[in-house]
Design goal:
heterodimer; A: 107 residues; alpha+beta; Alpha-Beta Plaits; five-stranded antiparallel β-sheet; B: 211 residues; alpha/beta; TIM Barrel; seven-stranded parallel β-sheet; 20% strand; globular
């Protein structure tokens, strides 16, 4: 079996007031499932690698990076609080992503 | 190189924040429709946009006389008005969801763009959202076939509705636009060139610029 390629996506979290990161992830998962449908949601293999109030690192199949980006764009509010999830960087390895995190001063 | 040509933020503080956000996330310019930013970096291009809502040609012409902006957009549900506006190049872009081959053909000759408002999708839900997405995909397909320029804008009414360039590029791909980066620079560059010529007094009329 061929090993599947994956991408790590670094996302900046901007919100109006304090928002629980777990709430954000829960609604994102819901939105992603809604957007892709059950069949493709499984194929996308979306995982959360690291999540803080400032940023989130996702792992996703390389075929679904654009779908994830669109889905992140379609998120508007969580618990009646405005939210903006901006993609900062997409990488094939975590090592490179950690470098970007260091440059931003988030690690 | 890339521009967000549809920002409708009304709050002064949020507009200044928006410029910082847009610059940080890959844009080199933006067109503001409500409030213009007071402070912005030198390399960041700021334009003033005007959105005209009209239902008849007479109403549109009256509004055109009174409006002054760098980028003029027509929002109308009237099919024949949209067609005439594209045919006579009365505006720079039309903000409609559904276009047909006739409008696209006229618009390609006069270089009137199809403006895709991302905020419309963001604010809609469920069945309505899927219908809008389907219509927009179809419109983009027709626009590409006929050579009508496309502009994608965030349409943000507050800071949190702004979107990063990479997110909007993914959306452009999702709509089925083959040259997915083109909606963020191609028509915008022409408008900026025209406005620069107007500032220098070199612009005479569409197609005539003094060198």
């Amino acid at each position: 079996m061929i090993r599947e390629k994956k991408r790590y996506v670094l996302v900046e979290v901007l919100s109006f007031g304090e928002v629980e990161i777990n709430e954000v992830l829960r609604s994102l998962k819901k939105e992603f499932l809604n957007f892709l449908g059950e069949k493709d949601f499984g194929k996308a293999k979306l995982r959360v690698i690291q999540a803080t109030n400032k940023f989130v690192i996702f792992r996703v199949s390389h075929r679904f990076v654009d779908e994830l980006k669109v889905c992140l764009s379609l998120m508007r509010e969580v618990n009646n609080k405005f939210i903006n999830l901006a993609v900062i960087y997409v990488s094939g390895s975590l090592k490179k992503l950690r470098k970007v995190l260091k440059e931003k001063g988030w690690s | 190189m890339y521009y967000d040509f549809f920002v409708k933020i009304g709050d002064e503080e949020e507009v200044d924040k928006a410029v910082v956000f847009l610059k940080k996330h890959g844009f080199v310019g933006a067109c503001f429709f409500r409030k213009l930013p007071r402070n912005f970096p030198d390399k960041f291009r700021v334009l003033k946009g005007v959105e005209l809502v009209a239902n008849s040609l007479k109403e549109l012409k009256n509004k055109l006389k009174r409006s002054h902006g760098n980028f003029i957009v027509l929002k109308s549900k009237n099919y024949s008005l949209t067609k005439v506006a594209c045919q006579r190049a009365l505006v720079d872009a039309v903000n409609v969801v559904k276009i047909n081959d006739v409008i696209a053909r006229f618009a390609s000759l006069t270089k009137v763009s199809l403006l895709v408002d991302f905020n419309l999708i963001l604010k809609s839900k469920g069945n309505r959202r899927s219908k809008i997405l389907a219509k927009l995909s179809k419109s983009c397909e027709i626009a590409q076939k006929k050579g009508m320029p496309i502009i994608i804008g965030s349409g943000a009414t507050n800071f949190y509705e702004l979107r990063a360039l990479s997110n909007l590029l993914a959306f452009s791909k999702f709509l089925g636009i083959r040259e997915y980066k083109k909606p963020f620079y191609f028509a915008q560059r022409e408008i900026i060139r025209r406005e620069e010529a107007k500032e220098k007094g070199k612009y005479i009329m569409p197609g005539v610029v003094v060198e």
